[in-house]
Amino acid sequence: MGDWDAALSYVAPDVKWDTSRQLNETRGIYETREGVRRVWERFAEPWESWRIEIDEFVQVGEDTVVSRGTGYFRGRDGIEVTARQSGVWTFRDGAVSEFTSYDDHQEALEATGLRE
């Protein structure tokens, strides 16, 4: 359902992908592009279709961004889910070197020293 190779071309080989704050079965900390690919595939598997729209980016210094987005998911049985999510993205040499997912936008901002 996704072009994982294209998406992973924007991810550093030694990436740290942290979804440990999530309340779903893909919660954990994943390292390396292959680890990230596995968690993406596992996350996408039960959905008939899905998309994530980024609603806002907040620049934090030169290499960090906080995002706020909305995910739209349709299950194989027609069940639709809408979920809000925020993330802290750190970049190195133009690639994502670290990502941490948050359910609460304020918590994501505070992780970088910002407040709303």
How would you describe this structure to a colleague?
The chain is α+β, with helices and mostly antiparallel strands and 116 residues long. It has one domain (4-111): Nuclear Transport Factor 2, Chain: A. 21% of the residues lie in helices and 50% in strands. It has three helices and six strands, in the order αββαββββα. The chain has helices at residues 4-8, 33-44, 105-111, and strands at residues 11-18, 29-31, 47-60, 64-75, 80-92, 95-102. Strands 2-1-6-5-4-3 form a six-stranded mixed β-sheet, sandwiched between helices. The longest helix has 12 residues, at 33-44. The radius of gyration is 14 Å and the shape is globular. The termini are far apart. The mean pLDDT is 93.
Features:
116 residues, Nuclear Transport Factor 2, Chain: A, six-stranded mixed sheet, 3 helices, 6 strands
Brief summary of the model shown:
It is built from three helices and six strands, in the order H-E-E-H-E-E-E-E-H. With about 120 residues, the protein is α+β, with helices and mostly antiparallel strands.
What's the CATH C level?
Alpha Beta
Structural class: alpha+beta
The largest sheet is: 6 strands, mixed
Write down the overall geometry.
Answer: globular
Query: What's the β-strand tally?
Result: 6
Radius of gyration: 14 Å
Task: Provide the CATH architecture.
Answer: Roll
Element order: H for helix, E for strand: HEEHEEEEH
- Roughly how many Å apart are the termini? 35 Å
The proportion of residues in beta strands is: over 45%
Low-confidence stretches: none
Assign a percent range to the helix content: 10-25%
